[in-house]
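To whoever is on call:

I kicked off a structure prediction for a single chain this morning and the downstream step that reads the tokens threw a length-mismatch warning. I double-checked the sequence; it's 147 residues and nothing unusual in it as far as I can see. Pasting both halves so you can look.
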Amino acid sequence: MSLGVPTVHHQVILLTFLVSLINKKFRNERGFTRSLIIMDSTKKIQYINSFALGAILAVIFIAIATIGGELHSPFKQWLKLTFFHHWIGKGVLSLIIFFAIGLFARGLMSNKQSVTHFLLVCLSWVIVLSMFSIFGFYFYEVFFAVH
């Protein structure tokens, strides 16, 4: 196993986490409700893929909002005024992005595990790149920016 490449074990952990988040009743084609836990594996993979895409976009949003809020103070002020604190605002907006993409993009997602693997690798890299972007921005601001 190399760094940044999730194994099947990681996918099972992610699946368990996602199922616990969205374990509610769904209607099947006959009108009967059933739990996501007993949903067929095709739909589970589609949910994993759509929520992985939602996580990727939420992480990108947080990085852009963090750096953008520092560079464009009206955005940071809007977050403060709307959500009482800019951190809460970024958190609420990222949750909206995560769940909106996760719930509504399922129909567009492939049910192939190779896509799941690709999206989880992308998520890993987006997290690392976002972390270094935020760290690099603040490092530059503290040590090199002239104010």
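Update from on-call: the warning came from a stale cache, not from the record. Cleared it. Sanity check on the structure: Residues 40-143 form one domain.
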